[in-house]
Amino acid sequence: MTDDASPGSPATATPATSAPVLSAKGIRKQFFGVEVLHGVSLEVHAGTVHGLVGENGAGKSTLMKIIAGVHRRDGGEVRIDNCIVDFSHPVEAGKAGVATVFQEFNLLPDRSVAQNVYLGREPRRRGLIDVKTMRTNTQVLLDDLGVEGITPDAKVGWLTVAEQQIVEIIKALSVEARVISMDEPTAALSEAEVAVLYRVIATLKSKGVAIIYVSHRLQEIFDLCDTITVLKDGAQVMSRPRSELDHSALVRAMVGRPISTFFPEPEPGTEIGDAVLDVRGGGNEQIDGIDVDLRAGEILGVAGLQGSGRTELLSALFGVGPFTRGTMRMRGTHVSIRSARQGVRKGLALVTEDRKGTGLALSQSVLDNALLAIRSVFPSRTREMRARTPDLLESLEVISRNSTQEVRALSGGNQQKVVLAKWLATSPQVVLLDEPTRGIDVGAKIAVYRLIRSLARRGVAIVLVSSELPEILGMSDRILVMADGRIAGELPPSSTEEEILTLATGTENHVVSDDADPARQR
């Protein structure tokens, strides 16, 4: 992998001929008498990226926290340069050259980049903080990574998520970290920001830094990693060079089932019916010229680059950012949806891409979250749904201690199922899904896909927005591609990723034929 690596470019496997910078052997860990890691081993070499994958609950985070000094191990050993270490605090790990960039950043938004980089260990001169040295050293680190657009004096709270992530990496390099662990580093990044992270990782590799990379996005694992270790239920399934694996083998190792089941086929009895909702000439400040039909039992995939108008389309349909021109009809009747409440009353549901920020009340219970929409829009049905919600949660296979557990304590996949339960309680005719599998593990993704298929069989019209093109191709009956706030074209599910990207980037005009519409074919 070179310095100009980008999403889609393969990693260059680095032979692991030298001794590992970090090795963990036979790591065991218990919580409240229950063993959650069963003798896991890991070797990380200088200048390589080691992928760590597995479903939620597989033990990835626990292993990372042991390496980072957050947790103490109960068995096994960790070595740095073949010397046994036993970190009791992340500060000790940092002094030994081991740093971790967690999903939740440890930054102070009201302080500058330089102040965050040197937080708690500010250089001093004559008893005072040496601001000039902090600024100078931070700029050197930014320059070494080839980072532009971030200055040492910039306030962290004003930076994008991707830029804040780079500040965390700079912090690690400022203590001369030789091993950097990254936990789901692209979960909240746009495609352009992911490309920046790829370049930063390539630069770190060229400088001999060893990287442990945790991600649910398998394409990133194959793009970036030299070696891949799979954990399942706290045990190590395998650890192999990336060159010896393909997507099918990796999925099978992670979930115990072949990749052919990853995108389930339509359920028996699924039929695409009449139009449930149609828009003609729809537009507002973000999107324009929208002509779209949604049919009962159909899954309409929406692809496009970041900023193409995909999310804005869903918001307009739902009434959050309503259409200000054009016409909308539901079941042949003209409607005007100007708010989320009106959208719900008309039979629409919107699963947003940010489940923690806009989908859930994290401090409330699983049950209360499942009842959020009903209480807000259909209060008279609250008692009825309260009685039915346990069965709904069970049908969605939500794993929690009980329905009174705070939803913040659930895994990402189970949180997403609670979001879906909240909307299914309203018995929607149209379900709008914005990145429904973002940040959840492979097993949870399959569960969401099966739910989508089940809804289609029941005659629900579904709009699926996703940045993962295999997901669009594997789940859609039709595909709309958006670019610059407009629908650039329509494709059948038999299309290729290249054809989608051609429309999304506007590199070639595409004429849509009636063959792209499966409803017409059927």
Describe the model.
The model is unreliable at 1-15 and 509-522 (pLDDT under 50). The strands form 5 sheets. The protein has a 6-stranded mixed sheet with strand order 6-9-10-3-11-12, with helices on both faces. The chain has 3 domains: 22-108 and 159-255, P-loop containing nucleotide triphosphate hydrolases (Rossmann fold); 273-322 and 430-517, Rossmann fold (3-Layer(aba) Sandwich); 348-427, no CATH class. With 522 residues, the protein is an alpha/beta fold. The relative contact order is 0.11. Helix 6 (191-206) links the parallel strand 9 (179-183) and strand 10. It has 19 helices and 22 strands. It is a peripheral membrane protein.
What would the keywords be for this entry?
522 residues; Rossmann fold; six-stranded mixed beta sheet; globular; disordered N terminus; ABC_carbohydrate_import_ATPase; ABC_transporter-like_ATP-bd
What layout of secondary structure does this protein have?
Layout: E1 22-31, E2 34-44, E3 49-53, H1 60-68, E4 75-80, E5 83-85, H2 90-95, E6 98-101, H3 113-117, E7 124-125, E8 128-129, H4 131-144, H5 161-174, E9 179-183, H6 191-206, E10 210-214, H7 218-224, E11 227-232, E12 235-241, H8 247-255, E13 275-283, E14 290-295, E15 299-304, H9 310-318, E16 325-330, E17 333-335, H10 340-345, E18 348-351, H11 355-359, H12 366-370, H13 372-377, H14 382-395, H15 412-424, E19 430-434, H16 442-457, E20 461-465, H17 469-475, E21 478-483, E22 486-491, H18 497-505, H19 518-521
Parallel strand pairs: 3-10, 3-11, 6-9, 9-10, 15-20, 15-21, 18-19, 19-20
Antiparallel strand pairs: 1-2, 1-4, 4-5, 7-8, 11-12, 13-14, 13-16, 16-17, 21-22
Pfam families: ABC_tran
Membrane topology: Peripheral membrane protein
Organism: Brevibacterium aurantiacum
